[in-house]
Amino acid sequence: MLDFNDSIAAIATPPGRGGIAIVRISGPDARKVATLITKAHDPKLNALKELPAELPPELSAAPLKPRYVYLRKFYDGLDEVDEGVIVYYAAPHSYTGEDVVELQGHGGNVVPQRVLSAVLKIAGVRQAEPGEFTRRAFLNGKMDLTAAEAVEDLISAGSESAAKAALASLNGAFAVRLQQLSEQLTQLRVRLEACLDFPEEHEDFFDSGRAQSELAHLCALTQEAVTIAGQGVRLNEGARIVLAGQPNAGKSSLLNALAGSERAIVTNIPGTTRDVLTINIEIGGIPVTITDTAGIRDRPSDEIEAIGIARALDELKQADLILLMIDTSKPAAEALEALNHMQKLFDHPKHLMVLKSKSDLPPNAETAALLTQEPWAQMEQIATSTKTEHGLEQLRRKLHEVLGIIPSEGVFSARRRHLTALNESAEALKRAQEMLELGDLVLTARELSIAQEHLGTITGKVTSDDILGIIFSTFCIGK
Ligand SMILES: Nc1nc2c(ncn2[C@@H]2O[C@H](COP(=O)(O)OP(=O)(O)OP(=O)(O)O)[C@@H](O)[C@H]2O)c(=O)[nH]1
Ligand SMILES: [Mg+2]
């Protein structure tokens, strides 16, 4: 259990060489830190819980005005450790809602650590946990959970669209939508509860037909939010595409073509790729990882290739989309080995696209015929050649389509937990509709309350310490 009465400190900027590094302190001792750190002082003073009202002469100076910048030297006791700028934000007008002090000094691997170490020697100050600044901001009512999570999404955005969506959430786009949903739900609940409390006045309070149409509207709104949040999740998490298929089919060549550079080794020896190789690219604004794997065949040439094939099969289980490459110029027996493996792995390989590779070479009729059989016939199939670039543009377009086209406006960043909660809420609303149709107002009211509770978990109105712990533990330290 974290203690929020103490003060926290962390380096807020990334490690390594850099012009500036920021050490941030938040909590009731932030001002004490500002006083001690900017003056050479007897190290014994660090141990004091509170500085005396009459400061020792070496510490007395005009106090810092909030939101002003001051050039100061930074001290660890009597030792000077850096020189930089100090800013003080007085509670509640700060990121966390508490007193905050920022020490903006020199970057690099050593200096910011020395400044932090000096700060941590001061009584009442401890190292911040990941995301603890933002967690305090949430607990102090500075932002709701969707905005708090958007802060982290913004920092880790993998594409421009992901960054825009995170900013939209940070500015409340998601929260506003949830607020609308919740308000309409509240209105409906109020009328329903009133009717349950005063059944004799039922007629005056409650119009079942109106409630039904309002509920239908609520369902539609929730569904819309599910769709947008789904796109937001995809933007956040990106998509995982895995290239698989028979050895020598041209998987590594395709990876290189999509990457636009020679990332993977390509030779005409079947079994060239042994280990998995992953690259990050962007398709239609969505961050995508593409993984190249060892070609799948029944008799690997050695133990290394066998391990590579096992890893390939593992990767396939985690893929959002598999691009199965079959060299249609080769004899059918070779293609069949890869196809059989694939069928064994998946009952319904619906997230699979077949690429008929080396389309510049004359096709083998038997191999081509294999792909006209089920289940392959019902799948998306594209003929490609990395030699002539035939089909590559079509492939990119198709990937864009399959991964979900993101409209440029209106998308906010979202997380899987939001999507789950929205879906739970939508389910409860559906059950409420059924109950209302049956005329069971008690159960309708209960389902509406469940729907609202699920919405509340998204913004943090309904929450627990456990959930907060999970959410903020994924944040970076110093945010
Ligand atoms: N004609 C033709 N040859 C290709 C094409 N794509 C790849 N090749 C050649 O096919 C051979 C194998 O290509 P790779 O990309 O290494 O194939 P792979 O599927 O990664 O092979 P493994 O790693 O062994 O599983 C190389 O000699 C490539 O130059 C293509 O579109 N047309
Ligand atoms: Mg390869």
Q: What does this 3D model show about the protein?
A:
The chain folds into three domains: 7-140, Probable tRNA modification gtpase trme, domain 1 (Gyrase A, domain 2); 155-234 and 415-460, Four Helix Bundle (Hemerythrin (Met), subunit A), CATH 1.20.120.430; 238-403, Rossmann fold (3-Layer(aba) Sandwich), CATH 3.40.50. The protein has 479 residues and is of the alpha/beta class. The two termini are 19 Å apart. It is built from 16 helices and twelve strands. The strands form two sheets. The chain has a six-stranded mixed β-sheet, with helices on one face. Magnesium ion (MG) binds at residues 251-252, 264, 272-273, 292.
Annotate the secondary structure layout.
Elements: E1 7-11, E2 20-26, H1 30-37, E3 69-76, E4 79-89, E5 100-106, H2 111-120, E6 125-127, H3 132-139, H4 145-155, H5 160-170, H6 173-197, H7 202-205, H8 208-237, E7 239-245, H9 251-259, E8 277-283, E9 286-292, H10 303-317, E10 321-327, H11 332-345, E11 352-357, H12 365-370, E12 381-383, H13 392-403, H14 416-438, H15 441-459, H16 465-473
Helix pairs in contact: 4-5, 6-8, 6-15, 8-14, 14-15
The structure holds guanosine-5'-triphosphate (GTP) and magnesium ion.
